[in-house]
Amino acid sequence: MRVLVQRSLNSKVTVSGKVTGEIDKGLVLLVGFTEGDSEKEIDYLVNKTLNLRIFDDENGVMNKSLLDTGGSILSISQFTLYAETNKGKRPSYVKALRSEEASKLYDLFNEKLREHVRVETGIFGADMLVSIQNDGPITILLESR
User: Fold this and answer.
1) Residue 109: which H helix or E strand, with range?
2) Which strand (E) or helix (H) includes residue 60?
3) How many whole angstroms separate alpha carbon 65 and alpha carbon 68?
4) Is 133 among the residues known to form the active site?
5) From the candidates 33, 55, 79, 109, which is the catalytic residue?
6) What are the pLDDT digits (tens) for 60-117?
7) pTM of the model as a whole
8) Among 6, 34, 49, 78, which one carries the catalytic annotation?
9) 78 is known as an active-site residue
10) Which tens digits make up the pLDDT trace of 32-47?
11) Of these residues, 80, 85, 121, 133, which one is catalytic?
């Protein structure tokens, strides 16, 4: 499981011209799954994401987590995080988990996040337009293994 974390000032996702999720200050998460991912990996990355200290404290030092700041999450399914580009010019996605299984894990991931913070999402498998105002810019890749 991979989660690309971006600190955001304002972000939204649009599907077919309709906004399906929007946040102000918080995190945008691009989330991908691979074979063997389970609830254990989800729990690990939920904890890691929520406690990642990438928000400024009173002294301008990145010393606060999302839980400390009361921010929100925009979670976007992103199978392309498992793109393989070693051969040729066209990426291969064979390491990305099949859609049916990934959808279930993605829903579980978001449910676990919602136990702690407000979570907005796109639509799994849809063609989405994601607007991210990356603050910093801060971008961090988290992996479960």
Assistant:
1) helix 99-114
2) none
3) 5
4) no
5) 79
6) 999 999 999 999 999 999 999 999 999 989 999 999 999 999 999 999 999 999 999 9
7) 0.95
8) 78
9) yes
10) 999 999 999 999 999 9
11) 80
